[in-house]
Design a protein that fits this description.
This protein is mainly β. It contains two helices and 28 strands. 4% of the residues lie in helices and 47% in strands. The chain is globular, with a radius of gyration of 19 Å.
């Protein structure tokens, strides 16, 4: 894809995205993957305000360094909906879970709607979709009816669902399995394991309290889960009962779980795990570090005091730049960009509660 063509058409083409969704070409055998040499742009998902019906998708032009207005609204003359939860670029399409509006939206790369799928339970009550991962021509998503569902990318229809537990949240795929955080609305202590081939739940793995927004497969092949604990430092609880936010590692070959270190948000690039740690009631513990997955040593990254309300963290797969959103309640967000060593590069203004950045590379 040439940049000039992109600027004229606002189209973006990529074989994959280095986020929760990856490695797709809509059920067609994959050609050899060319190593990307440039990131040409990125989609920015803004969750929006609760009940505000103001979720949005913007586009970051890497060459110009500018952020567009709402692409979805421009393409469809309407809002994406209430609470845009997750965004996935997979093959030729974009997928969005819109939790408050109880729907999955399938779009082309201009954010023009191809199909919108309303989600209801057996009693025809709306259910809230949450997070996505994708593999082998299917997008898998969690929902608050306690399920993971399978969406076929060719037929654009839901072809099955499996019960996994109370309030499932983030999920990933590794070694032929789905790993699903079971938050239990704050009381959960497990990660559900689903065999992808049979699409059945096989077991629950015990983890630290409240696994929630992050469950990722890192470049080393391990699954990393962040548990939110119970708001350690809350004066209503004695210190002996505090459960801290933590990153854990799951070996997808054995399903053994290991506790690693404190963490609130994580993002992976090669051997490095970038970690933000920000317990709400314990400001003295706040830090941002680079954790070496091989040596298990930490090194400083940035001064986290410059980001008082972190909402998300994503990494450009080519440059290694780290994008961290600062999302104060009731205000639009700032997207802070640092290089891989923590040097500040740029601040961009984005929408309400920026929750994800999905990068597009030139590897097609």
């Amino acid at each position: 894809m040439k940049k000039n063509w992109y600027k004229q058409t606002l189209m973006v083409i990529a074989l994959g995205v280095f986020t929760a969704c990856s490695d797709d070409n809509d059920n067609v055998p994959e050609p050899p993957v060319n190593v990307p040499t440039e990131t040409v742009g990125a989609y920015i998902l803004n969750t929006g305000n609760y009940g505000g019906n103001d979720a949005s998708i913007q586009y970051l032009d890497m060459e110009k360094g500018t952020v567009s207005t709402d692409l979805y609204a421009a393409a469809n003359a309407e809002s994406l909906g209430d609470l845009g939860q997750d965004l996935c670029l997979y093959g030729s399409k974009l997928y969005a879970t819109v939790s408050g509006s109880s729907k999955i939206v399938i779009m082309d790369k201009n954010c023009k709607v191809i199909k919108s799928i309303p989600l209801t339970n057996d009693e025809n009550q709306p259910i809230s979709p949450r997070y996505m991962t994708a593999i082998d021509g299917n997008v898998y998503f969690t929902a608050y009816d306690g399920t993971v569902s399978r969406l076929d990318t060719l037929s654009m229809s839901i072809t099955g669902s499996v019960k996994v537990g109370d309030h499932p949240e983030a999920l990933t795929n590794a070694n032929g399995k789905l790993y699903v955080n079971i938050s239990g609305y704050g009381s959960g202590k497990s990660v559900a394991v689903v065999d992808i081939k049979t699409f059945t739940k096989t077991k629950d793995l015990e983890v630290i309290l409240n696994p929630y927004t992050q469950c990722i497969t890192a470049d080393d092949g391990y699954v990393y889960v962040v548990s939110c604990g119970n708001y350690a430092g809350d004066s209503k609880k004695p210190e002996s009962e505090w459960i801290y936010q933590s990153m854990q590692r799951i070996d997808p070959k054995t399903d053994e779980v290991e506790s690693i270190c404190p963490a609130t948000y994580i993002a992976n690039n090669g051997d490095n795990m970038y970690i933000l740690y920000a317990e709400y009631y314990l400001p003295d513990t706040h830090k941002a570090v680079i954790y070496d997955l091989k040596t298990r040593k930490e090194s400083p990254f940035i001064n986290i005091s410059s980001i008082p309300s972190p909402q998300s963290m994503n990494i450009d797969p080519v440059s290694g730049d780290v994008y961290i959103s600062n999302a104060p309640y009731g205000s639009t967000s700032d997207l802070m960009i640092y290089d891989k060593d923590g040097n500040f590069k740029k601040k961009l203004s984005t929408g309400y509660f920026t929750s994800k950045v999905v990068f597009i590379t030139n590897n097609q």
